[in-house]
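Hello again, I could really use a second opinion on something today. For a while now I've been wondering how a particular protein folds. Please have a think about how the structure follows from the sequence. Here's the protein in full, and shout if anything looks odd to you:

***
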Amino acid sequence: MVFTKEVTLPSEEELTVQEVEVSTPGLRAASFHMGKACENVNNEFMLCRQECQDPRRCLNEGKAVTACSLDFFRKIKKNCAVEFTQFANCLDRSSADFSFKPCRKTQAVFDKCMLDNLKIERPYFGYFSEVKVHHTERPRPEVKKQEYLDMPRPVPDDLPLQPAKFGKRSLS
């Protein structure tokens, strides 16, 4: 990507946030519950990215997603640390691709702990594929009208028609 003098990049302080230091099995173990717990914040971020087409304008929404996930893992550590660790270790050691199939028993224990302590139910299969309407307080971005839309276009009647090469050409 090419930058010009007019482009302003965010400072190092604006970009620096505390990272979520969780391993791949841990992220995989908590993914469904975290997706449900941070759904609104994540949808707000994705809506901003889609509408603005400029990642610099969505830094605050991105920080909110990171803060939500950090808070989520703190709650897991406080309430369901043992169950979460057992499930993540099972995912890590049972298969090369972190498959859920060999770990359904430890998954059930973790899901029960999440429901009992944090009141977060594991979403049903296909929940994240459903179409949902996200309500936001952010104003709609201004849509710039393209200049080429105002240019005069030729009317089809003004164009000369060539005889059809392989059959009849009719305008009706």
In short: The chain has a mean pLDDT of 89. Residues 19-123 form one domain. Residues 59-79 form the longest helix (21 residues). The helical segments are 12-15, 24-37, 39-52, 59-79, 81-94, 104-118.
